[in-house]
Structure formats: structure tokens, C-alpha cells
């Protein structure tokens, strides 16, 4: 099976531009949703896991609009990411699929499961989902993202990357360089600033205070699909008090916490995460 970057690269034209993705494997559909952050992409999130999941599933790693790979669209990145999943599934004729969502991708998956329950058969989240209960908000990782969004530098990129992991040896020079290259893309940085820039963050906080709409996490009792919440015990981006609320609100939810692991569960706890996720998805 070819699971190289070039061998799996695909694109599909939709009414709101081109969506790019990676495809491999046979079996029931599994859509992998990436997170946010500096120089992020779906391929970088899941390239180390694709070969394992593709042994059991027809895998699609979707690149969200506005992160420098798929065509950008107007709107908040989390909202445009969710609508892009529906557009993607419609264009490829996928009525329903299991989903794995990393951080922001998990939030996207939860919102899809609430608003379009017929499209999500099972959901695996990697960090990201839920409110801070005991930990500081914004978290250490989010504060580092704000610093970079306001004034990008290679040094600030490295500080944020090292915050993502338990073992700093994971942050190789190659990983730093590829992230730095993408972070210099204007569309990618515009999306980052729209999510984490200090002005945008303050505006979002004011809008939440002024709005009568409940926060998304308070509505998670509407998630009907079986859900596996996975977390790194040493996550400094989304601390491990956050899954307490979704674990109680989502009717069919279970939580697995990996020791000696930061925010990138699929990287630092690769084999254990794959084993737990595949057992859940095939159960």
C-alpha cells in the first residue's frame, strides 16, 4: 500500500473552492480532522498513523480551508472547517463516517455530531474538547500561540512546539523547519491570527459574554454516536481537567489518558493510541 505524501495526495472541487486531502486504505470510511496551531496540516498530524489505520479503514485526511493547503474561505476557521467536512463528504458521496479529530478537529467533530448526527457514526477526539475546570484559561500553549500570532519568530515557534510534547526530543530540526516554512504562508498566518491573535481573542471573549448562545460544550448531551476521548496526561495546550465535562455529558463516552504524553497523543503515544482507537472503532 502506498502511504507516501505524493501517493495519497488528492483534491476535489466544491462550490466553495478546492479541498485537498490524502486517501489510503479500504474498508469503512474514516475521516481524520487536524488541529490548529502554527504551520499545521492534516498530513503532518496523521502521516505517522495513516499506514496503520489504512489497514482497517478507507482513510481520508482532510485539509481544512485557510491553513495553507486547501482553498481559503470567508468565516471563522472552526466554522469553515465544519462546513468543509460536509462539503467534502457530499462531493465524495460519503453518507456517514467515523471520525478522528485532533484538538480543534475534535471540536469540529463534536459539533458535527451534534448538528449532523447522521453523518458521524463514531468519534475519537484527541484533546481539545471541553472547558477548563481547574486549569488556567487561556492555557500555556494558547498563550504561546498568541505571542506567535502577534509577533512571529522562529524562537517563538520552537517554544510552542516544545510545549506540545512531553519529550522535547520529538521536536526535531526537520519538524521545526517544515512548520516555519508553512507559518510564513500569508493565508496560514491569517488563519492563526484570526483564532489566536490578541485582538481576535479579545473580540471572541467579548462576543461570548454578549451572546445568549450557550457554549458548544454545554450541549454535548446531543452527541449520540459512541465517542472515545483521548488525552495526554501532560498536555499543556489542553490540560487533562478539560475532558471531565464531555465525559459526563456525552451519553456514550469513554476516556483514555496516556501517561508521559503531551498534546500530540497520536505522535507521542503512537502505538498505544492506534491500538486503543482501532479497538474502539472496530468494536
Automatic annotation (TrEMBL):
It holds the Pfam family Abhydrolase_6. Residues 30-274 form the AB hydrolase-1 domain. GO terms for molecular function: catalytic activity. Gene3D superfamilies: alpha/beta hydrolase. SUPFAM superfamilies: alpha/beta-Hydrolases (SSF53474). It comes from the Bacteria. One of its GO terms (cellular component) is membrane. PANTHER family: HYDROLASE, PUTATIVE (AFU_ORTHOLOGUE AFUA_2G14860)-RELATED, MONOACYLGLYCEROL LIPASE. This is Pimeloyl-ACP methyl ester carboxylesterase.
Amino acid at each position: 500500500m502506498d502511504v507516501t505524501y505524493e501517493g495519497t495526495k488528492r483534491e476535489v472541487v466544491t462550490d466553495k473552492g478546492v479541498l485537498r486531502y490524502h486517501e489510503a486504505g479500504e474498508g469503512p470510511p474514516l475521516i481524520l480532522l487536524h488541529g490548529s496551531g502554527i504551520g499545521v496540516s492534516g498530513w503532518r498530524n496523521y502521516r505517522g498513523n495513516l499506514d496503520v489505520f489504512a489497514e482497517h479503514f478507507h482513510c481520508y485526511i482532510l485539509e481544512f480551508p485557510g491553513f495553507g493547503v486547501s482553498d481559503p474561505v470567508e468565516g471563522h476557521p472552526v466554522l469553515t472547517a465544519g462546513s468543509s467536512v460536509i462539503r467534502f463528504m457530499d462531493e465524495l458521496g460519503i453518507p456517514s463516517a467515523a471520525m478522528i479529530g485532533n484538538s480543534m478537529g475534535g471540536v469540529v467533530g463534536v459539533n458535527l455530531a451534534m448538528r449532523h448526527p447522521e453523518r458521524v457514526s463514531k468519534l475519537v477526539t484527541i484533546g481539545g474538547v471541553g472547558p477548563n475546570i481547574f486549569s488556567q484559561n487561556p492555557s500555556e500553549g494558547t498563550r504561546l500561540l498568541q505571542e506567535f500570532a502577534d509577533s512571529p519568530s522562529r524562537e517563538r515557534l520552537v517554544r510552542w512546539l516544545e510545549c506540545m510534547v512531553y519529550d522535547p526530543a520529538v521536536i526535531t530540526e526537520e519538524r521545526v523547519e517544515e512548520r516555519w516554512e508553512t507559518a510564513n504562508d500569508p493565508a496560514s498566518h491569517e488563519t492563526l491570527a484570526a483564532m489566536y491573535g490578541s485582538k481576535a481573542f479579545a473580540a471572541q471573549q467579548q462576543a461570548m459574554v454578549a451572546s445568549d448562545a450557550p457554549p458548544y460544550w454545554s450541549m454535548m448531551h446531543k452527541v449520540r454516536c459512541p465517542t472515545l476521548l483521548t488525552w495526554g496526561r501532560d498536555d499543556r495546550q489542553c490540560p487533562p481537567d478539560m475532558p471531565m465535562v464531555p465525559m459526563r455529558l456525552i451519553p456514550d463516552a469513554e476516556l483514555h489518558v496516556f501517561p508521559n504524553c503531551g498534546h500530540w497523543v497520536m505522535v507521542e503515544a503512537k502505538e498505544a493510541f492506534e491500538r486503543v482507537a482501532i479497538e474502539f472503532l472496530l468494536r
